[in-house]
Design brief:
Strand 8 and strand 9 form a beta hairpin. The protein has 11 helices and 14 strands. With 378 residues, it is of the alpha/beta class. Strands 1, 2, 3, 4, 5, 6, 7, 8 and 9 form a 9-stranded mixed beta sheet that branches. Strands 10, 11, 12, 13 and 14 form a 5-stranded mixed beta sheet that branches. It has 2 domains: 194 residues, no CATH class; 153 residues, 2-Layer Sandwich (GMP Synthetase, Chain A, domain 3).
């Protein structure tokens, strides 16, 4: 028994001595990587954002710019430009320049997906200009570095239901499963501060256009459920303001501005005509009016009902216009193709057939809106 115990202790000591020691102050933690396509054929520019631990208490951020023809080559080149040992296990963000996103992102994403050290829950985004320019921005509030700031920026807006989930896992799911096309946030720079204004629309792995964040609201209505959404809109004043009221200056009122909050929704998409490829989308919405620009008779149930109908018609129109815009790009982030495949069979998505018929499909959106209560008059 004693011999066995001695053997066990020796084995533990031997295994412990084999573990590579890593001192924090010797490690450069890569929190973000940006990829840009250079004018020289085949060459890439990489921008690596490093977080370094300082034993004196200061958090040091370093940005390294590299050139190579592969993602691994960019990392190797970055290693030659720092005394720190690079670690990619905490990579939180991959940012593609617009040009490389238009050419196709899978060339680089496939390499990242095969790296066991990189988590598939990191965010992916597109730069409005170049990734290098955005990652060189110096206004990132109280975040330790620009990579962490952009990660927090996207994560916060995902939780607030303003932008769609855009992790590596989500992108690969849409790409390989053919259930729908990916959507990514576009990061632009305003006064040296990264912001989100638009969303990149993809066809497979190529960016083919963009939509506004407001249009992204209607996209989420079609694809997902809102639990606490927000929407600002303008509606015509005619049904709610008396033209004969001299004190209201009716002719000066161009529209009634509404701010809707605490929006909950659910949508159902069904194929109503297989041969003519016609869809019907039924959306149920509940919302609270947080703010309204004109005093209308919200205590009157008929007025509230009419208001809900007009809000519903507005959302129907905006949603159908968004679908038409996506058809022009030949991108299907909603997943109409999957609904059609379930009705027709696997051949619906075979040999790029859906890409040929998607631009000609017809969609009718019906929105039922329930106003829960009125809010503040501004």
């Amino acid at each position: 028994m004693k011999k066995m115990m001695l053997l066990f202790l020796c084995t533990v000591l031997f295994l412990t001595s084999c573990v590579e020691k890593k001192h924090l102050e010797q490690i450069g933690i890569v929190t973000a990587v940006g990829f840009d396509m250079l004018e020289e054929e085949g060459w890439l520019e990489g921008t690596h954002v490093l977080f370094q631990f300082d034993p004196n208490g200061a958090n040091i951020s370093q940005i390294i710019t590299t050139r190579a023809k592969t993602a691994k080559g960019l990392m190797n080149d970055a290693s030659l430009k720092t005394s720190k040992k690079l670690a990619s296990g905490q990579l939180r963000l991959v940012l593609f320049g617009e040009k490389i996103a238009q050419e196709g992102a899978m060339r680089l994403l496939d390499t990242l997906a095969r790296d066991a050290a990189i988590a598939d829950m990191m965010y992916i985004a597109v730069s409005e200009t170049t990734a290098n320019k955005v990652l060189q921005a110096n206004n990132f509030e109280d975040a330790p570095n620009i990579g962490t700031y952009i990660h927090q920026l996207i994560e916060k807006n995902v939780k607030e239901e303003k932008v769609p989930q855009s992790t590596l896992h989500d992108f690969l799911h849409h790409y390989y499963d053919q259930s729908s096309d990916p959507i990514l946030p576009i990061i632009n720079e305003e006064n040296s501060k990264p912001t989100i204004r638009n969303l990149a629309v993809f066809q497979d792995d190529r960016m083919v256009g963009s939509i506004s964040v407001k249009e992204g609201f209607h996209l989420k209505l079609l694809t997902d459920k809102f639990t606490a959404g927000h929407l600002e809109m303008v509606i015509p004043p005619e049904p709610f303001i008396d033209k004969d009221d001299k004190d209201r200056h009716y002719n000066e009122i161009k529209g009634i501005y509404l701010d809707l909050g605490e929006i909950t929704s659910n949508a159902n998409i069904e194929v109503v005509d297989v041969e003519n490829i016609e869809f019907k989308v039924n959306i149920n919405i509940k919302a609270r009016i947080l703010e309204i620009s004109e005093a209308i008779k919200m205590e009157d149930p008929k007025v509230v009902k009419k208001l809900g109908e007009i809000i519903g018609k507005n959302i129907e129109q905006q949603s159908e216009e968004l679908i038409q815009k996506l058809q022009e790009m030949n991108s299907d982030p909603v997943g109409f193709g999957l609904k059609y495949q379930r009705k027709v069979g696997p051949e619906a998505l075979a040999d790029s057939r859906w890409r040929e018929i998607f631009p000609q499909m017809k969609v009718k959106v019906n929105v039922d809106t329930q106003i829960l209560r009125s809010g503040i008059i501004n």
